[in-house]
Amino acid sequence: MIEAVTTATTRAAAAPAAPFDAERVRAEFPILQQQVRGKPLVYLDSAATAQKPRAVLDALARYYEQDNANVHRGVHALSERATRAYEGARVTVARFLGADPREVVFVRGTTEAVNLVAQTFGRQRLGAGDEVVVTTLEHHSNIVPWQLVAAERGAAVVPAPVDDRGELDLEALGRLLERPRVRLLAVTQVSNALGTVTPLDRIAAMARARGVPVLVDGAQGAPHLGLDVRQAGVDFYAFSGHKLYGPTGIGVLWAKREHLEAMPPWQGGGDMIRSVTFEGSTWNDVPHKFEAGTPHIAGAVGLAAAIDWVTARGLPAIAAHERALLRHAEAALREVPGLRLVGEPRERAGALSFVMEGIHPHDLATIVDRHGVAIRAGHHCAQPLMQRFGLAATSRASFAAYNLPSDVEALVRALHAARELFG
Amino acid sequence: MSELQDLYQEVILDHGRRPRNFGKLEGATHQAEGRNPLCGDHLTIEARVEDGAVVEARFVGDGCAISKASASVMTGLVKGKRADEIDALFETFHRLVTEGPAAADELPGLGKLAVFGGVHEFPTRVKCASLPWHTLRAALRGGGTASTE
Question: Which of A261, A310, A338, B55 could link A357 by a cystine bridge, Cβ 3.0 to 4.6 Å?
Answer without folding.
Answer: A338
